[in-house]
User: Fold this.
Amino acid sequence: MASVKLTKNELKKQKDQLKQFERYLPTLQLKKQQLQMVIMKTVAESENIEKEYLSMIDGLDDWVAVFAENTLFSDERKIENLVIPDKIIYTQDNIAGVTVPVFKQLTFKDISYDVADYPLWVDEALVRMREISRLNVLLKTLKKQVELLSRELRFTSQRVNLFEKVKIPEAKENIRKIDIYLGDQQTSAVVRGKIAKKKRQGVNV
Assistant:
C-alpha cells in the first residue's frame, strides 16, 4: 500500500475516491453477471447448433452409397460444384458493451443445371448441403461471440476484483489512518490548549 498524506485534504480525496469506487462497483458486478448469462446462453445455443450440424453430416451417410454408385458425373458436373458459398451476411450487436458479429444469411452462387442431367435425389442433396454450410457458418459465428464475450468477462472480473479486494479496502484503510491521526492531533491540540490556559491562569494569580 502506498504511503498516504495524513491531512484533511487527503482525507477528503480518499472519501471521494471511496464513493466513486462504491458507486462504480455495482455497475461492474451487473456487467459481469450479464456477460456470464449471455455466455451461458450462447454456449448452449452453440452446442445445439453443433448437434444439428453433426446430425446433418451423419445424415449424409445415407447418400454415400448413391454418390459412390453414380458414375455419370464428370468432374465439372460434380455435386459439390453446384453448391458454392457466395457471401456471408453479418450484422453487429452490442452486448454489455461488447460488439459481436451476428450471423444473418449465407448466400450461394446462382448455378443453373439441367435437371435432366442428374437423378432425382440431387435436388434434395443440394438443399442439405446448403443447410450444412449455413449451420457451419452460424456455429463459427457463435463461437466467435463466446470468444469476444469471454475476453470481456475476464477483463470485467479483473476490474471487479481490483475494486473489491484492493481499491475499496485500501481507501477505507487510508481513511481510518487519517481519521486516527487527525483525531490524535486534535486531542493533542486540546491538551496543549488546556495546559497553556492553566499556565496563563497561574501567571495571572
